[in-house]
Design brief:
mainly alpha; 11 helices
Length: 399
């Protein structure tokens, strides 16, 4: 603010003419201060006249204040309209620049989203690759040893590197090692199963040869044929039994292999989930520690700020108390001086009485006549006769 520029209270004082009216108003208050009691009609008239003078002065000031407020209201409305007009000049350009900025920000955010989605897809692809390694035994359960050998060779040639598996190389290596062991066992089981099938095939071929011989012998001897047929029936029953047991064993082996593979996959998944949970718990612990440290820092800062504010309040309260005490002392001195002044003025008024002009003015105001009429009455006033009447009737002396 310019040092020569008036403050708001100063502008209000100028608008109301404070410098012009304040002294006059204080003089009016001082003039009526001697009226402390009404004992008769004259005293009441004097009190009413003083009241009307003060009231008229107040009404005049309120009128000036109302006019100043109306002018200020009109000025305020004009400022608001001009403000709207000036702001409208830049409104469209402001909106255009904001749109350009928001468009650029949205493009950057879209790039970040695309990068996050690409990273999520990459991590998901790595996880699928690791899972594919783990589920290989399930895919080759019940297949031939040659197919299992092919899967084993393919997995053996698979290179576990950072370019493909990134930070999951360790999990991929573990999955590869465990899966190769399972494929080795499956290969051995398949070879055993296939050898058994070959053995049974050889037995069936041998049985066919024996049947051919038996038929030849049957043609030679009916009795021998009957016995051979009995033996053949027994052999067929045994063969069927062995074949049935073989099928049941194969089914049992297949279910067992699938169960072991499922258990291995489930164990690997549980281990992975446990590891991820441990990581989440550690992150939560770290975040809780950071939050606690931040809360402690905020608490210390808050207590420090509260201590500063309390000290400032204490100093301010002490200053205000001192100011109030000084103001009370000054008011007490002023009241004592005013009371003494009023006492002296009362004594002086009692000794000397009102002036001639005051007597005429009071008489004219009391009876609501002109000053000329009051002067005419005083010219006809007989002081001696009045003094005799007062002497005869002491009740007239009481005001």
């Amino acid at each position: 603010m310019n040092k020569n520029e008036l403050s708001v209270p100063e502008r209000a004082a100028v608008a109301l003419g404070t410098s012009e009216h304040e002294k006059k108003l204080r003089e009016l208050v001082t003039q009526s201060g001697s009226i402390v009691e009404i004992k008769n009609a004259d005293a009441r008239t004097q009190c009413h006249a003083a009241y009307m003078v003060l009231k008229n002065a107040r009404v005049a000031i309120e009128k000036v204040g109302k006019e100043a407020r109306e002018d200020a209201t009109a000025f305020s409305k004009a400022v608001i309209e001009e403000q709207k007009r000036l702001c409208a000049i830049t409104e469209a350009e402001e909106a255009r620049l904001q749109g350009l900025r928001d468009e650029w920000d949205e493009a950057r955010e879209a790039e970040k989203r695309a990068a996050r989605e690409a990273e999520e897809k990459r991590l998901a692809a790595i996880q699928r690759a690791v899972n594919d390694i783990r589920t290989t035994p399930v895919d080759y359960a019940g297949k031939s040893s040659e197919e299992i050998q092919g899967a084993y060779n393919l997995l053996t040639s698979l290179e576990i590197n950072v370019d493909v598996f990134d930070d999951q190389c360790g999990h991929a290596e573990i999955a590869k090692t465990e899966t190769l062991k399972k494929l080795e066992q499956m290969f051995a089981d398949a070879q055993t199963r296939e050898a058994e099938v070959k053995r049974l095939q050889a037995e069936r071929e041998e049985l066919a040869r024996m049947r051919a011989e038996q038929e030849e012998r049957d043609r030679q001897a009916a009795a021998a044929r009957a016995e051979q047929e009995r033996k053949a029936a027994i052999a067929r029953a045994e063969e069927e039994r062995r074949a049935r047991e073989l099928r049941e064993q194969e089914e049992s082996d297949r279910r067992e292999a699938k169960r072991r593979a499922d258990e291995a996959i489930r164990a690997e998944r549980e281990a992975h989930e446990a590891e991820m949970q441990a990581q989440r718990d550690e992150i939560a612990r770290q975040q809780a520690a950071i939050a606690a440290a931040k809360a402690e820092q905020e608490r210390v800062e808050r207590e420090r700020q509260e201590a500063i504010e309390a000290e400032e309040r204490r100093k301010r309260d002490e200053a205000e108390a001192a100011a109030r005490a000084e103001a009370s002392r000054i008011r007490a001195e002023q009241d004592a001086k005013l009371a003494e002044q009023k006492r002296r003025e009362r004594e002086e008024f009692t000794d000397k009485g009102p002036g001639d002009v005051e007597i005429v003015r009071t008489l004219a105001s009391h009876y609501d006549v002109t000053v000329g009429d009051a002067l005419e009455w005083l010219k006809r006033f007989d002081a001696k006769a009045a003094d005799e009447q007062f002497a005869e009737n002491r009740d007239l002396q009481t005001v």
